[in-house]
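Weekly modeling sync, notes
Attendees: S.R. (lead), two postdocs, one rotation student

Agenda item 3: backlog of single-chain predictions. S.R. asked that every request posted to the team notebook include the full sequence so nobody has to chase files. The rotation student volunteered to paste the first one in as an example of the format we agreed on. Action items at the bottom.

Example entry:
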Amino acid sequence: MAISQETIEEVLRTANVYDVISEYIDLERAGSNYKALCPFHSEKTPSFMVSPQKNIFKCFGCGKSGNALTFLMEYEGLSFGEAVVKLAEKYNIPVKFTKSDDRAVFKQKLLQITEKIKEFYKNQLKNSPEAKKYLKERQISPSIIEKFELGYAPEDSSKLREFVQKEGIQIEDLSRIGLITLTDDGRFYDKFRGRIIFPIKDHRGRVVAFGGRVISGDRTPKYLNSPETEIYSKGKVLYGFYEARDFLREKKEAVIVEGYFDLISLYQAGIKNVVATLGTAMTPQQGKLLSRFVKRAVLMFDSDSAGKKAVIRASKVLLSNRIEVYYCPLEKGKDPDELAKEGFRKVEETIKNSKDFLLFLIDRVKGEKDLKKRKEIIDLYLDILSYMPDKYEQGLYLKELSSATGIPLELFEIKNRHTDFEENEEEPKLNLSGLSFKEKLILKGLLEHRDEILSRFDKFDKINGSAYFLYIMNEILNNGEKEELEELRKLQLPAEPDAVVEALNMLHLEWLSQQNELETVFLSSTDDSVIRKIFMNKKSLNTGGTKKR
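Predicted structure, as returned to the notebook:
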């Protein structure tokens, strides 16, 4: 399924960079332009500039630049297709596909239903003394209840029946979102009845599923989640990600826990860069989502056997996405929810004491006297290390292991792989018809001669090209597996390394020319600090870096 080129062009033509960016950060007028502190790196004086007339943005500190579409991709961590669809929704542009997309229309209908059901549960919580008492006993504040839009599913399902009848919601659709159990007489019961409700949102803030926790009695299971549906794939969603994403971006670090109350209690205690896997094994899609925002992850899982297995699985996924992995073991019998009750300082201290997981395993090797168990830990260490894509970094960790064990480096064997996880990611796909010949040439060349081209060209962040071209190029550079790559392999192009490097150098020259134009656009409205940054950037481009005198 491909978004039509007509839709893409209309979105790019309509989307105004000022309208989009001003929804996320405060812009201050500077002549005919606007300025702000850059949302992509830390700075004390504004060097992030926006030109409504030219419909572009540029940061003279970190160098990021582009249009409304590229801003959304960077800021929200969206794919190209998701960013196109989000802008289309903002400007009421119908999203057309190269083929009929009845499925997309149906999914939108189901999302509208989950939004209504979320509001129903929220209202039921307000009217339930028992549910409010339970949350008070769990020390959950009203502001956090509102932030995470918690609700309550009453024991009496007739209230839900009345609501859906009033709203004109079909019973079949309630079944499709995994909300009800049908009876033989044609009636239905709410699967979540008698439970506190946690709306589960995707990274765009859309309610795609629900979770529930019993508040009384011995009903099992204690926790209940929506099944996989046409709008919910548990392997693609991290609970709390939507609420935490600004804090993830700011800190470049994610604290990862397993459950609803673990996350909510930590968030309430002041640890807001926290997400939850909801007790499932971490998936490549979740790792990739996090990699758009963070460089480091702290795993705060239960210390039981299942928790330890979850840490191992998560470390492989995160390392394969170039995220540093730290392990934060908790006191026996304690979970993050209980830790959070001890206050922010205690939690912060615990997180600061977390340790690089691979070095944690080395300490385990050092402390283990049983030879068989030592070998098991070493084998685990090497297995996890095989998911690290950077060979140089692998080498550093191997030296640590060799030094700790006295085993020569040449006796260690690491599997040659980046990942063996299976991904099944569905999102709007684009065809290649909108790419120029030069862009197709480069992409085909990177697929066939990646290592040689990387050894001869290293300015991939400083080249011009269409947004979709840059998106696919980054997928190739980061070893992504996309359907488009299969189409690229079929292209009949003479993509030899010499021709590809020449094309890349041409796009780099176009980028340099564009930067000069951007500087001219913004120069009249910049202050001395930005002008100094422009000068230093030019000096860096011309000399390969700044030099101290």
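Discussion: group reviewed the output briefly. Residues 544-549 have pLDDT under 50 and may be disordered.
Action items: rotation student to repeat for the remaining queue; S.R. to check formatting next week.
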